[in-house]
Amino acid sequence: MKISKHVLRKTTVALLCSCAFIAQAAEKESEVNDVSYALGASVGKYISSKIYDQTELGAEVQVQTVIDGVIDALKGEVKMSDEDILTHLNARAEQLNDIRDQQLAAESAKNLAAGEAFLADNQAKSGVTVTESGLQYEVIKLGEGRKPLESDVVTVHYKGELIDGTVFDNSRDRDEPNRFALMTVIDGWQEGIQLMPEGSIYRLTIPTELAYGERQVGIIPPSSALVFEVELMKVEAPGENAHGMGLSGMGMGGMIGAGH
Could you report the per-residue pLDDT of 197-207, keeping only the tens digit for each? Predict the structure, then answer.
């Protein structure tokens, strides 16, 4: 029996349409699967990060029980009331805060002792002057300009280091000097820069009480003594060229407004 060309064409078109429909359905199912998996992976990563944060602090977490809680919540079969859940989570938050406080206190004590030892060694070096506040400075280059007042605006290049030599900021790496009102920075900078004639380069070794104290600022640990090499490039009276004032750069994010 011969099949007409017309019937063959119709059959072929029907098969093609059927294949296209199947392909579209498969593509849609794959997309739904991918989105669903991505949703689950996102939730899983969030939960994993929370578990990691707590175990890093020494708190115990039963991972399988966490998984059971997630499954129960998805099924709408949670075995605790919302009030009980909140009570347990608040208790864990208090526990974690206590652990963090203890770790911070221990780290602060260690850094304070290391800073005091560093300052004692540094002040014995030739060329180091110690002020009444405990600030230590060395003159690397003495400029001939005027010394700034606390109320002045200054432009500086600087490099900041921890006492172990770790550089936490360097304006020269950004090729961008920093301009700011002197009264807005940490006490050690306020005092030290006022000692510098314009055009000078000084090394300032700053006790923690003249820097950030017990706060952690970026990668600067709490209770850290700090070492800065500062070049005073320009001194301006307040209001002088004020429209151009820009507290730019400040990569460490803490010098401006950091006094305490």
Answer: 999 999 999 99
